Amino acid sequence: MTKRLTAIFLFISFIGITSIFAQDKRVTEGKDFSYLYKNLPIPLQKPQLPRIPDRFVKLTAYGAVSDGITLCTDAFVKAIDDLSKRGGGHLIVEDGIWLTGPVMLKSNIDINLSRNAIVKMTPDKSKHKNTTNKTSKIVIPAFYAKNAHDVSITGLGAIDGSGAYWRPVKKSKVSAAEWKQYCQMGGIISAKGDIWYPYNLRNAPSLTDSPEEEANARADLIRFERCERVLFQDITVQNSPRFHVHPCYCKDVSVLGVTVRCPWNAQNGDAIDLSNCQRCLVTECTIDAGDDGICLKSGSGKTGVEYGPCRDVLVEDNTVIHAHGGFVIGSDASGGVQNVVVRNNRFMGTDTGLRFKTSYGRGGATENIYISNIVMTDIRDQAIVFEAAYSNKQVGQEDKHAGATDFAPDFKDIHIEKVTCRGCKTGILAKGEEGLIHDIDIKNSVIFYIKEATEIQKTCKLDVSNVTFKTFEFDFW
């Protein structure tokens, strides 16, 4: 009898280990995206994937409970520390709802979310407070890594940022019923009655001394800084307090098959932002966001120049359902954006399609950009837009770069072709002073517009050739 029980136990253990390996098969084997780097218009350096040791542990082994009530932050910390001491590996987050505060990743660590796993960030703001005193930031991102290498978040599960407890809301962007729901959470309404601030909420005490400070304190959901060999694959990321997936100053970044979603009116709800990153691939992602969809940035002013350009980036085979822009460069671009290929993407219902935006104080050289095979439908404003005097105001605040005369915008050497757009207010818009937008060609495209085919200032040097502009035979605008 004892031998039989032992055999059964060993069989069950084998099945459990096998299921973990099977669950993580896509991580250990991966999908080869080398084919995307064939027939590029310019040579790009391909990112290296993380090298994670074949070591697997479960979050439950460290005391986590998947009831959506028990705080699991300590379990995450213990599991990551244990894996790190053993040389790294995969932390398996099984099916269930895992309530947690911020999680710091370390080198050689992969967090793998099972299909029915939801990692829910606690709305208790005190659990997000920065206690390290190593930065001026009041709160830290939900999933955070700094100066690490070979780090990843993978799997078919989801991360939810509980963003409603952090984001200010403009009354003009919500229905009366939605406005009432926000007010029932508590909070503060501005003197003009036009902005709701998540300050002094009933179930989430504030961390700062004013509603405006509270709104400015919110952090990204996933933010990796100065890391090498970074991978985000297959996960769903939603409802962030601020940006959703935000690698900064990183090298070798792969964002593969990620889904990002948040309310269409989520303030600063950018989906995937790459800031001053080099050797990056963004492919097979699906985005429904409140701000920019896929965005390349390189900092503002001297800081942006110090961190260097966003460079060698391939953006291919992505779908953006809603965003302020489907593909965006800016507004912070002082470090430069160079060597970028964007092709075979579709935008449906975004505010703008291809969006280039910056201004004095945050501008820089944006060059060697090749964009092709883009399809768009139902674009609210412009299919293609260049703005060299963009204003970036936070809710209730003024643009801190207004009136700047240094770090001028320099959009140049940008090549756009084979764009098909069915439905936009304006086909192509470009506005900026002499010398800020130049040496740009747009060709072999079809744009069906509603109001205007083009609105291009004479100071902007765009070569538009073999582009078919069509609209309705009658004016209903």
List keywords for this structure.
globular, mainly beta
Structure overview:
- This protein has 477 residues and is mainly β.
- It is built from 6 helices and 36 strands.
- The strands form 3 sheets. It has a 22-stranded parallel β-sheet that branches.
- The longest helix is centred in the first third of the chain and has 22 residues, at 2-23.
- The N and C termini lie far apart (83 Å).
Produce a short descriptive summary.
With 477 residues, the protein is mainly beta.
For the largest beta-sheet, the strand count, sense and barrel status come to: 22 strands, parallel
Structural class: mainly beta
In percent terms, what proportion of residues is strand? 35-45%
Percent helix, as a range, is 10-25%
Q: How many strand units? A: 36
Which whole number gives the mean pLDDT? 92
Per the principal axes of the C-alpha atoms, what is the gross shape?
A: globular
Question: How do the strands and helices of this protein lay out in sequence?
Answer:
Blueprint: H1 2-23, H2 25-29, E1 56-58, E2 67-71, H3 73-85, E3 89-93, E4 96-100, E5 103-104, E6 109-113, E7 117-121, E8 143-146, E9 149-155, E10 158-160, E11 169-170, H4 176-184, E12 186-189, E13 195-201, H5 211-217, E14 222-225, E15 228-233, E16 236-238, E17 245-248, E18 251-256, E19 259-261, E20 272-275, E21 278-283, E22 286-288, E23 294-297, H6 301-307, E24 310-316, E25 319-322, E26 325-329, E27 337-348, E28 352-357, E29 365-377, E30 382-387, E31 410-411, E32 414-422, E33 426-431, E34 440-448, E35 452-456, E36 462-470
Parallel strand pairs: 1-3, 2-4, 3-6, 4-7, 5-8, 6-9, 7-10, 8-14, 9-15, 10-16, 14-17, 15-18, 16-19, 17-20, 18-21, 19-22, 20-23, 21-24, 22-25, 23-26, 24-27, 25-27, 26-28, 27-29, 28-30, 29-31, 29-32, 30-33, 32-34, 33-35, 34-36
Antiparallel strand pairs: 11-13, 12-13
